Amino acid sequence: MIRVTLWYEYAQEIGELRREMVPGISDGDFQHFEEFVRSRVEKIHRVYPLGLMGTLEEALRKDPELEITPVNIYMPEYGLPDDLLENTDVLVWWSHILQDAIPDELAYKIVQRVQKGMGFVPLHSAHKSKPFMYLLGTSGCLQWREDDFCRVWTATPSHPIAAGIPQYFELEEEEMYGEPFDIPKPDDTIFMSWYRGGELFRSGCTWTRGYGRIFYFQPGHETSPNYHNPYVQKIIDQGIHWAAPTVWRPDFDCPNSLTKPEEK
Amino acid sequence: MIRVTLWYEYAQEIGELRREMVPGISDGDFQHFEEFVRSRVEKIHRVYPLGLMGTLEEALRKDPELEITPVNIYMPEYGLPDDLLENTDVLVWWSHILQDAIPDELAYKIVQRVQKGMGFVPLHSAHKSKPFMYLLGTSGCLQWREDDFCRVWTATPSHPIAAGIPQYFELEEEEMYGEPFDIPKPDDTIFMSWYRGGELFRSGCTWTRGYGRIFYFQPGHETSPNYHNPYVQKIIDQGIHWAAPTVWRPDFDCPNSLTKPEEK
Amino acid sequence: MIRVTLWYEYAQEIGELRREMVPGISDGDFQHFEEFVRSRVEKIHRVYPLGLMGTLEEALRKDPELEITPVNIYMPEYGLPDDLLENTDVLVWWSHILQDAIPDELAYKIVQRVQKGMGFVPLHSAHKSKPFMYLLGTSGCLQWREDDFCRVWTATPSHPIAAGIPQYFELEEEEMYGEPFDIPKPDDTIFMSWYRGGELFRSGCTWTRGYGRIFYFQPGHETSPNYHNPYVQKIIDQGIHWAAPTVWRPDFDCPNSLTKPEEK
Amino acid sequence: MIRVTLWYEYAQEIGELRREMVPGISDGDFQHFEEFVRSRVEKIHRVYPLGLMGTLEEALRKDPELEITPVNIYMPEYGLPDDLLENTDVLVWWSHILQDAIPDELAYKIVQRVQKGMGFVPLHSAHKSKPFMYLLGTSGCLQWREDDFCRVWTATPSHPIAAGIPQYFELEEEEMYGEPFDIPKPDDTIFMSWYRGGELFRSGCTWTRGYGRIFYFQPGHETSPNYHNPYVQKIIDQGIHWAAPTVWRPDFDCPNSLTKPEEK
C-alpha cells in the first residue's frame, strides 16, 4: 500500500478566506480578494460537483494499492500535522492563491520529508508553491492565460508514467502555461503541451532530490474539467506509483568518520 | 579564428544524383529518385537564389571570427578529406536524401573528431545523419509534415546560443518536425517549436560527447526560406561560437598506469 | 520472467583463438597473441573453477525471475543470432581482447535492440566494446592497471540497483580503472570505486537510449575472483531487473503525419 | 570586469563570536563554543598569515579582470547589504560554524540573485550553507574527517574550469569529505578527490539555477594550507570566470499573456 496524502488549498471551492492566510494584506484588498474567491465557487461546483480534489480522489480510490487521505488548508496545522506527514509516502499537492499562507517552517518539513524519500506530485499552479520552489531551487516562473485548447504530447513514451498513454490527447479547455518555464533541467521531460493560442510548455517533468522523487504535471485549472479526463487521472496515478519511496534515508547526519576505512 | 566547414548534401539543389550515392537501389527506383530530385531544383532556386547553403554561408561570412570552407558531397572524398576534417574546428552539417551515401568509415572519423573536441552543428534533416545518430546513440526518429507555420520559443534565455533572441520568433513556413523526438536527454533544451497544425518539438538542443560540443537546430527545410531569417542566422552563428573547441584531446589511448600514484 | 542473455568472449578461458576473430593481424603477432591467451587459462580456472561467466550464471540462476541463456563468441553468429537477440530482454555483456571481432553489423543490431527497449548491462572491459561505444557515442577511454585493492562506494543509495548494498564494500584484488572516464553525463552515478594505488572511478553508471536502459558496472577482471562476491552478484542481478524493458518501441519509422491534428 | 564578492565567515580566524550569531544556544554551550573558536586562531594564523580568505584574495587580485570586494559576517548586514549584493556578479562563499547565523531572508536574497544570473562559488564547508542547500534543494550531507592526504583528479578535462589543470594534483593535508554526497545530479562533475584514508568525493561540480551558474569546490579546510596551492587558486579563478553572468533576468513575473500570439 502506498500512503497518499492529497493536499488541497480548497479556498476557491468553498468561497471562504481566513484573514491570517493572506499575511500583510490591507483591509480593502482583502475584501476584493474575498469577492474574487466567492465569485469562482459556482463555476467550480458546476465543473466539479464533487469538488476539484474530490473528483481526483474518487478516481484514485479505484486503485486498490493507494491508501488515500484528503486534507486541506482549513484543517489544523494547515492540514499537514507532523504525524500525518511522517506517515505519508507520496504527497499530492494542489495550491494556488494561498501559496504564501504556508509557513516556511512547514514548507521545510515537506522539503526534508522528500529528501528522506517521500514522493512529491505538485499539480498545476503548485509550480509557485513553496515546496516546489524550495526543492527545485528555481522560481517556477512561466507565462499563462485562462482557457485555451490544450493538446498533451507524450515526449518520452518509454517512461512508466506514460504507460498506456497515447501519442497525444486533447483537453478542450485548460489554463495555458507557456515557456520559458524556470525549472532546473528535468531528469525526464515526459509530456509537453501545445496550446491553440500559440504557446507550448514542458507539462510533465521529473526530478530527484535526495532519496525523493518529484513529478510535476500541469493540467488542473480549477474551472476546467480535466480531472474528469481518464488520461489525466491515469497519469497522476502512475506518477504516484513512480514517486513512491523504495528506501528511506534514516537521518541528515554528516558523520565524523573517525576511523579510516584503511585502518579498520 | 574558428575554422568552420559547411558540409552540404547539395543533390536537390543541382538536381543530380550519382548512382553510387544510393547503394542497393534498383534501376527503376533510381530513375524515380532522380526525377524527384530534379523536380525540386526550381523551387529551391526560387527560394534560395544563392542556394540553401550559399545563403547560410553569406550570412556567416559577416562574422569576422569565422573562417569558412563550404564543401559538398560531390567533391572528392565526399567533400571531407582527412586534411580538411583535421583542420576543422566546427562542422556544420546539412544532409537529407543522401544520408546513407556517407560511408560508415567517414561517419566514424567525424565521431572521433568530435570526441577529440570538434564542435558539431547538425541542421534540420541531419537528425537522421550517421554522425548525429552515431554520436547520440539514438535513432533520431520523429514525425514530420511539409510546410506548416512555425513559432520558435526560447526556453533557456540565459544560454549563450540564445543571446539577443526574443521570447519567440515566427517562420511562416517550415517543415513540421514533431515529438516524440528520439534523442538522449539534452544538456540544454534551448529552443522549442510550435506548429500551427498541432505539433511541437524540441528544436534547439545541446549535448557533449568527449571533448566535443553538439548543437542541433531544426529550421532549414530546403524549400522554405528560413536561412534568410536573421534570428535563424544568429542562432547558427552563436551555435558555432558555443561549439568551438577550447581544448583538444590528444589521443584515444587507454594508458596502462604502471606506477601507482601512491608510489611515485 | 526476464529473458537474460549472458554474452561472453570466452577466449582467455579456453585458451583458444580463431584467426578470423583478430582481423588484420600478422602471423607473428597472432602467434604471440595466442601464447598470451593460453598463458591465462590456468589462472582463470584457479580463480573460477566454473569459469568467469559460469560463476556469474550460477549466481543469477538463484533468481527465479530470470530465464538465463549463456552464449559465447565461439558459437554460430558470434553467439547472438537474430532470433536469440529478438528474444532477449536484457543482454549482459563481457568482452575484452576480442572486442574488434564483433562485426559492426552485429553491433548495430544490438544498438537498435536497445533503442527498442532491451536492457544492456556491459561489464568491466566492455567499456571499449562496440555496443557500449556506439550506444554512448564516446570513446570509453580510461586508465588501468592490474591487481589493486578496490573499495566500492555507494554514491546513490536510493537507487533500486543499490538496494541492500552497504555504504561500501571491498574487493581485495580488482583491475584498477581510473578517471578520466570518457562517458556522457550519466543519468545516475550509483557506485564509485577507490583504489589503494591512488586512483578513483565512476564504476556503476546508468544511461537511457531510446526505450532502453543501460547499466555499466566495473568489477569483473578475469583473474580476480569478484563474481564470487555476493554484493557484486546482487548489484548485477538488480541491474538486470532495473534494465528490464517495460514497453517496446514497435519500429523506427519517421512517419509523415499527413493530417494535421488540428484538422482531425 | 567581473565584480566578485568574497564572503567569509571569519569567526575562527579572529577567535571571536557574537552571541546573536548562535541563536538558541545555552550560556554553557556558548562558552564552550567560544573556547573552541579561540583554540583555532593560532593554527589558522600559522597556516595563513594573511588569513584564509586573505590568501585567496591575494591570489585572485592577480587576475586583472576581477574587481574584488572582501566582506565578512561581522560587517553590517552580515557583510552583504542589498546594494553590494545587487552589484555582485559572482559571489564566492566560505562558511562553516556560523551557517545558521545567516537569516533565511538573506539566504533567499542570495538565491534570487543567483536565479537572476549571479554566479555562485561555494567553497568547502559551504555545502551546508543555506544558500547552497536552498539553491540545490538537497541536504548537502556527506561524511568527513580532519586532515588526510588528498589527490584531486580531473574527471572532465575539456571543461573551461579545468583548463591547464593536470590529470591530478596532490594536497598533503585536507579535510576528508566522503560520499555519499547528497546533491542533485551535477551538470558536470569536473573534479573528484581521492583520500588516503579510503574515501572518495565528487569535489568539483556545477549546476544551473535560473540564469545563474553554480560551481562548488571542496578544498579549503581552515587549518590546511590549500589556498596557497596554485592549482586550487587557478580552479577557483576559472570557476569565477565560468560562473560570471552573460545575461540577467529582469524580474520574476509570471506574466498574463492576454493576447494570443496567434491573434497578434
Quick tags:
homotetramer; 264 residues; alpha/beta; Rossmann fold
Write the layout of secondary structure elements.
The structure is a homotetramer of 264-residue chains.
Chain A: E1 2-8, H1 11-14, H2 27-47, H3 52-60, E2 66-72, H4 82-85, E3 90-94, H5 104-116, E4 119-123, H6 130-136, E5 143-154, E6 168-178, E7 188-195, E8 200-209, E9 212-217, H7 230-243
Parallel strand pairs in A: 1-2, 1-3, 3-4, 4-9
Antiparallel strand pairs in A: 5-6, 5-7, 7-8, 8-9
In short:
With 264 residues, chain A is an alpha/beta fold. In chain A, 27% of the residues lie in helices and 27% in strands.
SSE pattern of chain A, N- to C-terminal: EHHHEHEHEHEEEEEH
Instruction: Give me the side-by-side strand order of the main sheet of chain A.
Output: 2-1-3-4-9-8-7-5-6
Mean pLDDT of chain A: 96
Helix and strand content put the structural class of chain A at alpha/beta
Q: Please count the helical segments of chain A.
A: 7
State the domain count of chain A.
1
The most extensive interface between chains reads: A-D, 42 and 42 residues
Tell me the β content of chain A.
25-35%
Supply the CATH superfamily name of chain A. Answer: Class I glutamine amidotransferase (GATase) domain
Shape of chain A: globular
Rg calculated over all Cα atoms of chain A:
19 Å
Low-confidence stretches of chain A: none
Largest sheet of chain A: 9 strands, mixed
CATH fold-level label of chain A? Rossmann fold
| Assembly category | homotetramer
Number of E-type strands of chain A: 9
**In CATH terms, what is the architecture of chain A?**
3-Layer(aba) Sandwich
Portion of residues within helices of chain A: 25-40%
